[in-house]
Amino acid sequence: MRSLLLFSLLLIAPVAAAQVGQGQIELSGSAAFTSTEGLTVFQLSPTIGYFLTDAVVAGFELQYVSVEGNGDSGSIGPFVAYHFGNRAATIRPFLQAQVATSFTDDSDILFGGAGGVKYFFLPGGALRGQLFVLTDGEDTQIGVSGGVSIFL
Predict the structure, then answer these.
(1) Is residue 24 a contact partner of residue 93, using CB atoms and an 8 Å limit?
(2) pTM for the structure as a whole
C-alpha cells in the first residue's frame, strides 16, 4: 500500500527538469530482497559516476549478491553511459557499457551492457530503471533493475 501511495504521489507531483550535465557527480544504487519458498536473495548495487560531457558519464559499479545456501558473489568495474535527449529533459534514456571483475569467483572478467531510462522527479534526483546483460563468456545474467540517482 505504501508503495502505491508513493508511486501515485510521483505521478501527480510537479514535473522536474533534469538539469544535469558536465562536471556533475551521480551517486546511484539499488537494493533488492526476495524470499520465496525458503530461498532468500539479497542484492546491493551502488554506483558512482562523473559527467564528462552533458551526455557521457563514466564511473564504477559494485554489485553484491547473497543467495541463502549458495554463498555470496559480486563484481566491481568501470562503466561508461551515454544519455540521449536534452540535458534538461524530465526523462533521459541511456545506454551503458561495462567491464567488471568478479571478486568472489577466481577473478573472472565480466562484460556487459544496459539500456534504461532516468525519470527526474526532483532537479537533483531521479528514479532509474534498466535492462542489463552481464557475461563471462560461459554464464550470462539478464535482468531488470531499478533504483534512485542523486546528482551533486
Answers:
(1) no
(2) 0.76
Residue 145 is predicted with a pLDDT of 82
Amino acid at 111: F
Which three three-digit cell numbers place residue 128?
532509474
- Distance, in Å, from the CA atom of 48 to the CA atom of 61, rounded to the nearest integer, reads 7
pLDDT in tens, 69-98: 777 777 889 999 999 988 778 899 999 999
C-alpha cell of 108? 573472472
Q: Under the phi-then-psi rule, with left for phi > 0, alpha for psi from -120 to 50, and beta for the rest, what region is 121?
A: alpha
Rounded to 5°, the CA angle 132-138-140 comes to 20
Q: Are 41 and 141 in contact (CB under 8 A)?
A: no
DSSP string, 46-85: EEEEEESSSSEEEEEEEEEEEETTTEEEEEEEEEEEEE-S
Q: Give the 3-state secondary structure of residue 87.
A: coil
